[in-house]
Amino acid sequence: MFDIGASELLVLAIVAIVVIGPKDLPLALRTAGKWVAKMRSVSNHFRSGIETMIREAEMEEMEKKWKEQNERIMRETAVQEAAAAAGQTPDAAADQNDPYPVPLASDVPTADPVMIGPMPPEETVPPPAKPEASQP
Fold first, then answer.
1. Single pTM value for the model
2. Pair 99, 93: CB distance under 8 Å
């Protein structure tokens, strides 16, 4: 913060000896040291107060997120429990009151991952013929 080199420090020491005098210089340095210590203490106290406020703000934000997640989980759990009690799957219970239901997978043509476009209709294979029973 303060850029004081060795030569500048030597000049300050000489000026302090001349102005204050060698007799009162230890007392002046002790007083200056106490002031510096007090300034550092106030600075550290201020910094810790700011850090505490930041931590509290972050905690409030995290608590808000946790509360939202907890509410979402509780809603999902309630839907799943209601579905289990009604004998439905959770998706069916969630879609029960949906004004715009999602079409079923059987209603939507699916695409082959290798082909581009819809899949051709599946061929039906006739069941194998049963061997004729032999007569005794």
1. 0.40
2. no
DSSP string, 14-77: HHHHHHH-TTTHHHHHHHHHHHHHHHHHHHHHHHHHHHHHHHHHHHHHHHHHHHHHHHHHHHHH
Question: Roughly how many angstroms between the first and final C-alpha of the chain, as a whole number?
Answer: 113
Domain spans in the chain, listed from the N-terminal domain onward: 6-89
Tens-digit pLDDT string for the chain (136 aa): 567 788 888 888 888 888 888 888 889 889 989 999 999 999 999 999 999 999 999 999 999 999 999 999 988 888 777 777 766 666 665 666 655 555 555 555 555 555 555 666 677 767 777 766 655 5
